[in-house]
Amino acid sequence: MQYMLLLFENEEIMNRATDEAAFEAYMAPWIAYTEALEKAGVMVGGHPLSAAHTATTVSRRNDKRVVQDGPFVETKDQLGGYYIIDVPTLEDALHWAEQCPAAATGFVEVRPIADLG
Predict the structure, then answer these.
(1) What CATH number is given to the structural domain containing 103?
(2) Which of 23, 27, 55, 93 is most buried per CB count within 10 Å?
């Protein structure tokens, strides 16, 4: 079964990596985690997302499009990226989510990918 791991972190933590050494230190656990997923053969895909301030939120009210810059929800934790993994059970997905660097500083939302076929 495929699961999406939605990665939420405090943007202040992500923004602290202002020089090359800090960026490499920030990225090291992410690179190791991605390599572990690949080595285990469970990684289907994933990508980091641009900073939350680059987001545009769209809704429709009274049959009119409403466009808002930035994330809709005011929160310190921002969606920073995702992984899609393919594992046999939810417990396996939770195991991988627990190992994710975002779990230590923010949180990881685990969702099954719906099979509409």
Answers:
(1) 3.30.70.1060
(2) 93
For residue 86, is it within any domain? yes
Mean per-residue pLDDT for 82-92? 97
Helix (H, G, I), strand (E, B) or coil at 112: strand
What pLDDT sits at residue 12? Answer: 80
Instruction: Name the residue range of residue 57's domain.
Output: 2-112
pTM of the model as a whole = 0.84
Does 95 map to a domain?
yes
Neighbours of 108 (CB within 10 A): 22
Strand ranges inside the chain, DSSP E:
2-10, 43-48, 56-61, 64-69, 77-86, 107-112
Q: How far is CA 88 from CA 1, 15, 61, 81, 91, in A?
A: 6, 35, 41, 23, 8
Q: Give the pLDDT score at 74.
A: 57
pLDDT in tens, 32-81: 999 999 999 999 999 998 887 788 888 899 999 988 886 655 566 788 99
Number of domains in the chain: 1
